[in-house]
Amino acid sequence: MSEHAPKLRALLAYDADALSVTGRARIEAHLAGCEVCQGELATLRLYDELSAEVRSAPVPQIDYDRMELALRREARAQARGGRALPLALLALAAAVLLGVLGLQRRETPAPMAALPSAPAAVASTTTHPPEPMPTLSGTTTATADAQVGEARATLETALHEGDVLETGPQGTLHGRLAAGTGFALGGASRLTLRRMRADGIALELERGQVSNAVRTGIHYRVEAGPYRVVVRGTRFSVRRDGDHVHVSLAEGAVAVEALPTADSRAGDAAADGRTLAVLHAPAEWDSA
Amino acid sequence: MSGLDPVVERARAGDEAAFNQLFRVHRDTVTRIIYRVLGPTPEAEVEDVVQDVFIHVFRSLKNFRGDARFTTWLYRLTTNVARMHIRKKRSRPRFAQVEVPERGDEPESKARPDTATESGRRVEALYALVQQLSDKKREVLVLHDFEGMPAKQIAEVVEAPVLTIRTRLFYARKELYAKIAADPQLAPAVEHLLESLPGKAQAKRAKAAEPRQRRATGDAR
Question: Do A151 and A260 sit in the same domain of this protein?
Answer without folding.
Answer: yes
